[in-house]
Amino acid sequence: MVTAPPLDPLNALHWLRDVGADEAVLEAPVNRYAEPAARPALAEAPVRDERPAPSRDVAREAPRRAEPERPAYEQGTAREIDAGLRPVAGLDRSADLQSAKALAGAANTLDELRAALERFEGCPLKKSAKNLVFADGNPQADLMFVGEAPGRDEDDMGLPFVGVSGQLLDKVLDGIGRDRNSVYIANVLPWRPPDNREPALAEASVCLPFLMRHIALVRPRIVVALGATAAKNLFDTTEGITRLRGKWLELNADGYECPAMATFHPAALLRMPLNKRYVWRDMLAVQERLEQLAGGTHLA
Ligand code: URA
Fold first, then answer.
1. What's the pTM value of the predicted model, to 2 decimals?
2. CA–CA separation, 91 and 120 (whole Å)
3. How much distance in Å is there from the Cα of 41 to the middle of ligand 1?
4. Span 94-293: which CATH code?
5. Which of 76, 145, 211, 261 is buried deepest, with most CB atoms within 10 A?
C-alpha cells in the first residue's frame, strides 16, 4: 500500500508533485475544506449556516516562537524566493548570470570548468554548502544523467548521488547493465540548498551556464534529466515531469546537440515506488537508442 508522508505543507506539496499533480488546473486555488459540509438541495434556497461558531483555537493563537536570525539565503522556500517574497542575498541576477556565462564559456576542459565553479561567487548556495559537488562517473561515457542538487550526504562527500537516492540510481543503472564507470552524473546545482529545499529559479538559472558547458565538454550521446528541476532547466519548459517523461527531446547544450529524455527522480521513486515501472520503460528506451547510435568512441 502506498502511504503519503505526514501532512506538513511542504511534504504535501512534494508528494503532490511526485504523484503527478504538478500543474495548476484553475486560475486560483480552491480550499475545499472551506466549503460547507452539506449543500442545500436547491441552489436558490437561502442558506443558513448551521455550523457551530468556530471554537477558539488556542494552539493557533499561541505566540509564535521567534525564528533565529538566519542569513537571507537560508530563509524561505524556493517558491517564496521565486515570487520575490524573499531576497536571494548576494545574487544579482543579471551581473551574476553574465559572470557565469563568461567563466563557463572560457572553460575548455572539465578541470577548467571545475576551477571556474570554484572561482564563481554568483550563487549564494556556495556560502552555506560544505563542498562543491561537481560530478561522478566516467566523462568518456555515452550516457549522462543530470539530477537536481546535492543533499546532505553529497555535500559531505563532494560527490553526486551517494545517499539513499543514489543507491536507488545505482539499481536503475544495474537494470540496464551499467554502473558509475559507464555513465557520467552531474546536477543542475553543484551546491546543496539549505535544508534540502527545492532550488529557487534564480539559483538554478545562474548555475545553468556551467551545466550546459559541462554537457558540451562531456559530449554524451544521450542525456537523461532526473526529475522536474533537471527537466525544467535543461529543456526550458514549464511542463510537469509526468507529462514530459519518456519523450525524446532535442537538447542544445552550449551548441552541443544530442537526444535527451526526462524521467522520474530516484527520490520521487522512493516516495512513489509504483513509478519505477515508468523509469524502467524510459531506461529501456534510452538503452535501445544508445545501441542504435553506437559505433563511436564513447564507452558503452
Ligand atoms: N539528488 C540529486 O538530485 N542529486 C544528488 O546528487 C543527490 C540527490
1. 0.74
2. 12
3. 52
4. 3.40.470.10
5. 145
